[in-house]
Amino acid sequence: MESSATIATDRSTQLNAFEESMTGVKGLVDSGVTEFPAIFRAPPAVLTSLKPQPASHLAIPTIDLKGGVNYKNQNSDTRRSVVEKIGDAAEKWGFFQVVNHGIPLNMVEKMREGIRRFHEQDAETKKRLYTRDHTKKWVYYSNIDLYTARAASWRDTFSCYMAPDPPTLEDLPAVCGEIMLEYKNEIMKLGGLLFELLSEALGLKPNHLDDMGCTKSLVMFGQYYPPCPQPDLTLGLSKHTDFSFLTILLQGNFPGLQVLHDHYWVDVPPAPEAFVVNIGDLLQLISNDRFISVEHRVTANGAAEPRISVPCFFSSVMKENPRVYGPIKEILSEQNPPKYREASLNEFSKIYGAKELNTSILQHFKI
């Protein structure tokens, strides 16, 4: 029997070889692998959970934004109805889909195609961009938690900080830069609306979360999930909660996203006309657990075509940011005392960067 030291050394060797290739999971696929390296094999408990009990009776809420609910008509019955539905979804699910959001579908398709074009460039072109230096505006790598996770996941990623200091067109890859900048503007507008509605759902003025800085930072990810030769033995993205105030996701063109609700893994089928929205850890903290940040994951892609998704996080993630956040004082009372201590975003980032994705950071700030 191999010693634990030998196994650890072999794992370290595989991880380093994979990282040093700078070609990611796409490089493994292009090499023609029929079995992936052992570093991708998920632990037995995770593999068992990939075949959960049917949860067809459960579905995340879908909310019609009526083409974008007009801020000036905030007292209308339509807006109050949307606020109620979003508040209910944020409290009970932490996830919901929005339709009739006002973002043109042709822009959505152009964005998805731009992500695909980037990841399907030749390996040498992408190698020049491969880095884990998150102080840079643009980062391309495979598996953000490659060295801390128990198993690597079957995906490649690029990320780019889009606000408050947006990149120029020259900062971005030619194959997708122009559409990224156009798409960013639309996501910022949609995010602004959602934060207004969430503010009102908390009983606050529409601009409250915006005034707290929740809308100011945006990082965009371009996720690429290649076809996986052994999709029953790994994940596309391990279970996790998001380190953000809010996430707006352009979902993949194939199924894979799952949300944990009432101990069930619930499938979120892709809908071309919808965005998936979820509450992040930071919004759970400042709402004092009124809104919930729930675990979600992506199963490995068993289709013949790659799965593309574009999550946009209202968060500074790994950027330096000394701003301090705690539960919103206006919603606290004797009956609702603070459940978290105040902490800076720098402290959040430090903990987030040092852990495996599948553990929430909120436990570190509980009172």
UniProtKB/TrEMBL annotation:
Q: Which InterPro entries match?
A: DIOX_N (IPR026992), IPNS-like_FE2OG_OXY (IPR044861), IPNS-like_sf (IPR027443), Oxoglu/Fe-dep_dioxygenase_dom (IPR005123)
Which Pfam families does this chain map to? Answer: 2OG-FeII_Oxy, DIOX_N
Q: Which UniProt keywords apply?
A: Iron, Metal-binding, Oxidoreductase
Q: Name one GO molecular function term.
A: metal ion binding
Q: Which domain of life is it from?
A: Eukaryota
Keyword Iron annotated: yes
As cofactor, the record names: Fe cation
Cell inner membrane as UniProt keyword = no
Domain Fe2OG dioxygenase, by residue range, is 216-316
Protein family per UniProt = Belongs to the iron/ascorbate-dependent oxidoreductase family.
From the Swiss-Prot or TrEMBL record, give the protein name. Fe2OG dioxygenase domain-containing protein
The source organism is Microthlaspi erraticum
